[in-house]
Amino acid sequence: MKFFLSFNLCNLGTREPTIHNMLLPSLSPSLRLCSIVPHLRSFKPSRTSRYAGVVVFTIIALHSLLRITHEAYGRMTSIPNISAHFAWPLTGDVAGVRDPFDFSNVYVNGTRRANAAILMLARNSEIDKAANSVRDLEDRFNSNFGYPWIFLNEEPFTEEFKERIRNITSGPVEFGLIPSDHWFQPDWVDEEKATQGRDKLVSQNIIYGDSVSYRNMCRFNSGFFYRHPLLKNFKWYWRVEPDVRFHCDISFDPFIYMEEHGKVYSFTITLYEYRETIPTLWDTVKEFINDHPEYLAPNNSMAYLSNDDGRTYNLCHFWSNFEIADLDFWRGEAYTEFFNYLDSKAGFYYERWGDAPVHSIAAALFARKDQIQFFDEIGYEHAPFTHCPRAGKSRKENHCSCRPWQSFDYTGYSCMRKWEKIQ
Ligand SMILES: Nc1nc2c(ncn2[C@@H]2O[C@H](COP(=O)(O)OP(=O)(O)OP(=O)(O)O)[C@@H](O)[C@H]2O)c(=O)[nH]1
Ligand SMILES: [Mg+2]
Questions:
Q1: Beta bridge partners of 325
Q2: In angstroms, what is the span from residue 321 Cα to ligand 2's centroid?
Q3: Residues 274, 206: contact at Cβ < 8 Å?
Q4: According to CATH, what is the number of the domain 108-421?
Q5: GO CC terms for this protein (predicted)?
Q6: Rounded to two decimals, what is the model's pTM?
Q7: Looking at ligand 1, which atom is closest to the CA of residue 122?
Q8: What is the Cα–Cα distance from 144 to 252, expressed in whole angstroms?
């Protein structure tokens, strides 16, 4: 190694005329290679540095060889490919915690991007359905915007799941594991009471009445998803479920719309909840409000939730399988206190409180009415219900595949009229 170094560098210093030596006079004396030659001659590398040199040399040689012989390796390690991974300023580290980044000024192709991610909670078994949703939203929206996707699961995602998703996404993708204390039924929940609650719903023929995993999911979506490390430095999320459809091109950026119009929560479908799943939810909400009247927003949407000034709940809620919302709203003091209070009553397990009424009640009470957005222009379907944009012009311009008569908006089970009445 010593021989190699001294041979090359000394010769570089003496051989004439080379481009290198022609340039030498213009360099400062300290940078002249010939000036370091004497030092190199007397330089005796230690055994460790000799080994290190050999290792570095071998790696470089191997890398060069692989680049020449394997096209895929060459592509993967090319500077453009490596820098593409850093083009979006979000690279989760091993623990999934992102570096803080100021998103207020992120531009892609001259248009501003929001600090936002598209979020899907899914099981490995739902890969086909998940891929359908991703493909739809990519085709209709994200292939033009390149927002990152985040997938969460209480079990590690399989390689098949990850590979298939990576094949159809345009932006960066992250796969996160949900911490078990964010998912599973806590020890302090009285299991006997929870079993009785499940049996009761089964006897009433209520969907998912006997399912503990469904309850885990509802509790997670109510109070934990926004605490996941992968979401830590985001402000906005778009919730997407497996097997949903987006029927129209979304040519505007809903995140930027929310940001610029001071919105915190948005929906496309609103409907009634099963009363049997939340027998004590409203009383619990009223207790909380009595204790914390300061969290009620001025000009809130109580009239959408209640037909009698808050005495009873009319079961109206925003269908939370679609949500574009501000994570800071859930992280804020009002919602944190609210969720903790609800959770302490264990209604997620003793009954079957859904994240949809929990989110909706909070958004309707702790945000102003004008902070909640109905996105008419987003054609959306989660079976069995569809929202199709009302304006014929919008349906035509955005190549909507839905038909307006399919729209759930003004059917008997919809709460749209109630929402419109309070506007
Ligand atoms: N990882 C994981 N995800 C789940 C589990 N249960 C539900 N989910 C996800 O949670 C979301 C809601 O679950 P769904 O089964 O769609 O519940 P739903 O929309 O009320 O009911 P459906 O009408 O059956 O769609 C979806 O994104 C599911 O993929 C689970 O046990 N594990
Ligand atoms: Mg669903």
A1: 237, 265
A2: 6
A3: yes
A4: 3.90.550.10
A5: Golgi apparatus; membrane
A6: 0.78
A7: 29
A8: 10
| Nearest residue by C-alpha to atom 29 in ligand 1 | 122
Tens-level pLDDT at each residue, the chain (423 residues): 333 333 333 333 333 333 333 323 333 333 333 333 334 344 466 777 677 767 777 777 675 666 555 433 443 444 333 333 333 333 332 233 444 444 555 666 668 999 999 999 999 999 999 999 999 999 999 999 999 999 999 999 999 999 999 999 998 999 999 999 999 999 999 999 999 999 999 999 999 999 999 999 999 999 999 999 999 999 999 999 999 999 999 999 999 999 999 999 999 999 999 999 999 999 999 999 999 999 999 999 999 999 999 999 999 999 999 999 999 999 999 999 999 999 999 999 999 999 999 999 999 999 999 999 999 999 999 999 999 999 999 999 999 999 999 999 999 999 999 999 999
Q: Is the CB of 122 under 6 A from ligand 1?
A: yes
C-alpha–C-alpha distance, residues 177 and 365, integer Å: 32
Atom of ligand 1 nearest to the CA of 213: 31
Residue extents of the structural domains in the chain: 2-80, 108-421
**Closest ligand 1 atom to 155 CA:** 1
Tokens 């209640």 correspond to what residue?
306
Of residues 106, 93, 96, 94, the one with CA closest to residue 147 = 106
Ligand 1 atom 8, closest CA: 122
Is the CB of 126 within 6 Å of ligand 1? yes
